[in-house]
Design goal:
It is a single chain. 46% of the residues lie in helices and 11% in strands. By secondary structure, it is an alpha/beta fold. It folds into three domains: 30-134, NAD(P)-binding Rossmann-like Domain (Rossmann fold, 3-Layer(aba) Sandwich); 135-168, Double Stranded RNA Binding Domain (2-Layer Sandwich), CATH 3.30.160; 172-245, no CATH class. The strands form two sheets. It has a five-stranded parallel β-sheet with strand order 3-2-1-4-5, with helices on both faces. A two-stranded antiparallel ribbon has the order 6-7. Helix 4 (104-117) links the parallel strand 4 and strand 5 (121-123). Helix 2 runs parallel beside helix 3. The structure holds ligand SHN and 1,4-dihydronicotinamide adenine dinucleotide.
Length: 288
Amino acid sequence: MSEPACARATPSPAISGGSLLIAWQLKDKNVLIVGGGEVASQRIESVLTADALITILSPARGLHARTKQLIDAHAARITYYDRRFSGPAEIHKMDMVLTALDDVNISREICEMCRKAKVPVNAADIPDLCDFYFGAQIRDGPLQIMISTNGNGPRMAALMKKRIQSALSGTEGGAIEKVGVLRTQLKERAPGVGGPLGRKRMKWMSEVCNIWQVDELTQLDEHTIIKLLDEGWEKDRVPTLDQLKGQQKWHGFRPSQSIPSSTLWLPVIGSFALGAGCTALVFLARKK
Ligand SMILES: C[C@@]1(CC(=O)O)c2cc3[nH]c(cc4nc(cc5[nH]c(cc(n2)[C@H]1CCC(=O)O)[C@@](C)(CC(=O)O)[C@@H]5CCC(=O)O)C(CC(=O)O)=C4CCC(=O)O)c(CCC(=O)O)c3CC(=O)O
Ligand SMILES: NC(=O)C1=CN([C@@H]2O[C@H](COP(=O)(O)OP(=O)(O)OC[C@H]3O[C@@H](n4cnc5c(N)ncnc54)[C@H](O)[C@@H]3O)[C@@H](O)[C@H]2O)C=CC1
């Protein structure tokens, strides 16, 4: 009897032992932060960026200067209580709990309460009890890059961040913002979910992103977007920025991810020239 195909297949490299990297949407969700030290101040900033509603529990005498500043500057988003964590009632109605305490026993108790109440929790000092970890972050508008070593080496995450940062031009976030506006306007022109129109929309959007350079995408102002939709989407093609500006002819639209035919011919012409050159040399040598 023949084996089923799946049993014969070579095993793929291990796909376990990692964590799920997701962009958690926290807008207007309730987040409890217990502790007010330096680590708490970093948590507050991360959670504020995601537009959450924050409750902080921490005695005033232990507040870090940055924590104080954030509490004062974001009174509409942060409710601060000058006291210690008091028990399970604090967790009630929370969507997320973060502890950044100098007392590991309290951290552990809070984690256990959260587990019972099925509220996701991160304790800065007890990785084993965390439902999720924070990571080093690079942010440029809508572009968000998180580097995680999955608990192995947080300092290494910070160092990898510097390396990745140096490979970015700083214009990517702006370009992505413009792509967001273009996508919204395209969906307004060609509304609906799924089906052939959805597929066509996705293919066209992918081609624009493939063909246009990041710096070109940053030039997508209101006028250029309308022109790109009129001259591109409506006519089933993806013009370049130069074509839209009238600085390049309108024929020869480059399909995405294909190699331009000129590039394909280069090695052929090159090999031919090299071959011809060698033959001529051999011929001349023999003649001598
Ligand atoms: C598991 C995790 C839980 C969580 O916090 O979610 C965790 C746990 C712990 N960190 C500790 C120490 C340090 N943490 C940092 C820095 C960062 N730590 C961050 C995340 C995480 N830290 C999560 C795993 C992330 C991952 O693995 O990738 C970063 C990336 C993000 C952030 O905190 O927002 C941020 C850098 C951000 C940036 O710079 O951009 C530094 C270096 C520094 O400060 O420069 C040191 C000292 C050097 C060192 O230890 O490496 C200790 C005490 C260990 C001890 O007592 O020995 C524990 C507890 C333990 O491990 O037991
Ligand atoms: N995950 C990470 O990236 C890192 C984690 N850590 C760990 O994070 C924890 C916090 O670090 P720091 O902010 O530097 O400490 P910290 O000592 O500056 O701050 C602790 C805070 O907890 C408050 N606190 C203590 N007991 C409390 C209670 N019962 N209820 C409410 N608030 C209470 C204190 O008033 C203080 O504001 C430490 O356990 C440290 O080992 C430290 C560095 C990095």
